[in-house]
Amino acid sequence: MTNGDKIRQLNNEELARLIFGFIITSKDSTFFEKLELDDKQAIENSKGYKLLVETFNEEVDYE
């Protein structure tokens, strides 16, 4: 199994956590100030994480 296979098996919450982790650890991230992340705050309670999960859970019609 490749890393790509593992990523494709993630559910929406796990995928949001992974992407959000990349964003907040990027020193060049222009989103950092807007995410309102506090060091003591759980990732699940942060604005950026909630927005990612909302986006992933949104129903989309591709037709």
Structure notes:
With 63 residues, the protein is an all-alpha fold. It has one domain. 49% of the residues lie in helices and 0% in strands. It has three helices and no strands. It has helices at residues 3-8, 12-25, 47-57. The termini are far apart. The mean pLDDT is 74.
Total helical elements = 3
Low-confidence stretches: none
State the end-to-end distance: 32 Å
Mass-distribution shape? globular
- Whole-number radius of gyration? 13 Å
Write the layout of secondary structure elements.
Layout: H1 3-8, H2 12-25, H3 47-57
Helix pairs in contact: 2-3
Summarize this structure as a short list of keywords or feature phrases.
single chain, mainly alpha
In short:
The chain is 49% helix and 0% strand. The chain is mostly helical.
